[in-house]
Amino acid sequence: MINQKITKNKLDKRSKYLRSLICKILLSTDRGHFGSAMSLVEILRVLYDEIIFFDSIKPQNDKRDRVILSKGHGCLALYAILADKGFFPMKELEKAFSKNALLGGHPENHIPGVEVSTGALGHGFSLAVGMAKAAKIKKKNHKIYVIVGDGELNEGANWEAALSASQNKLGNLKVVVDCNKIQSHSFTKDIINVEPLAKKFDTFGFDVSKVDGHNILQLKKNFYKFSKSKKDKPSITICNTVKGKGFKFAENNPLWHHRNFFLQEDIKKINESLK
Questions:
Q1: What number of other Cβ atoms are within 10 A of residue 96's Cβ?
Q2: pLDDT digits 0-9 by tens, 166-220
Q3: What percent of the chain has a predicted confidence (pLDDT) above 90?
Q4: Domain residue spans of the chain
């Protein structure tokens, strides 16, 4: 198992910019999963900036790599990166959640760049296994990436999927865990403790690694290695992340998992954090 040293990271301009897009949605709609999106930013940034093949003009290009956001409530981060990459106009971000809007509270597969509709936790992993097995049977070269939350791993369907992935030797499957240690409005260890995750997935036959989920270099090296891998076993990267990353008042704070409205003092703190 590869276990990268976890470091304290200052956010660069790119990471702050993507967070500003997320905040554009949040402050326009006055609600959304704040903390869940912020812990995801660097994971999605590295995948779309550095690793995967995609075609924003022809989103269904058969050669594309597949990215499934199983923790669908973190969709604001996905919307930000998809808009940034040109899958749909930026103006759609400010229209999110409104009547007849393209973007809803969870990702749906009518949205360009979204592979499957998610939000009911525990299903994305199984869908990814199916896609990976189909690609293997058809001898396709694309990779399948599925992003799950550590709290989401409470769901039993994930472990059935893990067994199937190992049994079928799905070396084209990468599971990425956004391990922010908070689910809903409490800490995962106090709801259902899923640790030790690394040992569990190693026992299930996965190639296991750990990285700092906000460290661009660690993420890039880890994902790049998988993208070139010819192994016949599935891979999992446990990304140690901070819920609400980039906003000190929200970091590791379960109360910022989701917000239904923003007070003026909240808006002030958000804007100050983005400077």
A1: 21
A2: 999 999 999 999 999 999 889 999 999 999 999 999 999 999 999 999 999 999 9
A3: 86
A4: 8-273
What pLDDT is attached to residue 76? 96
User: To 10 degrees, the CA torsion angle through 152, 156, 158, 162?
Assistant: 140
For the full predicted model, state whether its pTM sits above 0.85: yes
Q: Are strands 186-187 and 182-183 parallel, antiparallel or unpaired?
A: antiparallel
pLDDT of 1 strictly over 60: no
Amino acid identity, residue 142? H
Domain 8-273 of CATH type 3.40.50.970: yes
Burial grade of 27 (CB within 10 A; 0-12, 13-18, 19 or more): middle
